[in-house]
User: Fold this.
Amino acid sequence: MVEEELQKVLAGCLKQDRKDQKLLYKSFYGFAMGICLRYAGNRYEASEIMNQGFLKVFTKLEQFDTNKPFKAWLGRIMINTSINYYRSNLKMAYADDIDEVEVMSNHELPDHKLAYDDLLAMVQQLPQAYRTVFNLYAIEGYAHEEIGKMLGISDGTSKSNLFKAREKLRKMILAASTLPGTYGSGYSAHDNASPFKLNTSINNK
Amino acid sequence: MDHSDKNKIDSLFRESFALSNRQPVFVEEEWEMMESLLVQEPVKKNNIIWLYRLTAGIAAGLLLFIGIHFAVKNTDNGDQQIAVIPVKTDTLQHNATTINKPLKQDTLPVLKNPVLPTVISARDYTMAKSRSSKTVAPSTQPLDSTTDKPDDTITETNNKLADANVIKTDTVVSNTNLTANTTASVDTPLTVAPPIKNGIAKKQHSFSGPKITLAILAAPDVNGVNSFKGAQTGGNFSVQASVKLTSKLSVTTGAAYAIKPYETGFSNYRSGNPAWWRTMWAAKPQDVMANCKVLDIPLNLDYQLFKKGGNDFSVGAGVSSYFMLNERYSFAFADPSATPAQLQVSNRNQHLFGVFNIQATYQHKLNSRFGLLVQPYAKLPFSRIGLGQVNLKSAGVAVGFNWNIHSFNK
Assistant:
């Protein structure tokens, strides 16, 4: 969507015009869902998070500074909504200390690239607490101090969860390289089917 | 895990997620869920403004209708009238007015002394002309003559003519083929002339405006989804205005505030669509209890079946627009231990001309101004009503009073 068109659509959304709201939703669906899928455990949860995020967008749009890129604002809302969605679970999961998890595997990672769907499926299999920290640190580029503030945890806990997340992912990548089709083969983020069907039968397309 | 492995894992995912051109494809059902979330949002100011505008539009439309009806009625009387525009005498004294085309408001013959009529009937004009020794001698020229030269000039003023109050221009044109080449000068101020005393018909027009009746009604409003089985009773309070189109036909509009409670199975509520309820609850509700406050704007046509003495009976049909002012819902779940979920929306749903009305009206005149009304009615929706998109039917018997505004004009 070009900038001029985006401004018109945003103006319509400010007037609660349903057509413009749908157009905005449709235009940024892929981007928003892409973020939510990384933070969510499955497509259904991602859908719920994304809609909660868009609800914030539509209801708080007057707070958006039109001089700044809309996509970045939308992305931040999706991330914050994802964090809020799992907030209670996140706090419960942060029990480990970094010293307890310094047990490493020395297997080397394969060089070949894995498909997006496979990697997404791996991230989604991480426990919520690990997944959230991994996303914030490795994908979004936040520092542990910032993550700690965002999630209400200590820097150490953030580091610990990131470490565990990496270790789990490493195992998954190794498994995928030795057993092709282990990940991603049964679940696609691009599936056109209803999210409800995916939710009830996640491994069946 | 060494440092390079950490970076390798991070960059593997980061690059894959960032560079992948495979983005999730839009799913329509997810937008439907989004819409239902939006529907539950609080009142939006612009919706209220829109509602006010619509109500004002309806009121303006009604006034326009009454105005048109009023104008048509006056025209139909055959007494086409034209008003005399006040004339400055000093101008008239020096500039004789010449009229060489059919009479119009701005080209009336202006008569000399003693007084000018405010409105003159063409019939009076013709009669007066025939009686007058030398007043207006009509020209035989065609009406569309463009000659500025006056054929006749009124040099003597016929008092009778001057006294006439109404002029019918259409009669002037058709009956006498008169080209109003009439010039007159005035040297006295304009005054309203007294009535004619010598037998020349005086057309004192009486304004007979549209026959408007106002009514105030209240009714127990019985509501049910799909049928009236297990119906709930609310209330309906309305103000109506009726305008008589003919002796038997009248049009009615107004506004009604209705309280419409109902109870139905969840399968009737948004057709039990899982795309809707799953956005809010883990389990599907079993029943819905609703209480809706509705502004009902009806537009009905009534036909008088009989009138005897002070009683008359009419039947009518029309459409209503529903403006859902407030909708409260309570969803009960199959699990008896589960707490019913509450949902409330305001000014969210409007149904323009979405409801079919039928009614019968019995009126008993109490006196020349007031009457007693009893009005059984039913309201059957064309469209699905409210947030739940239900087939909400209503019926009741309204009782109230009406007030014949026209009685004050007599």
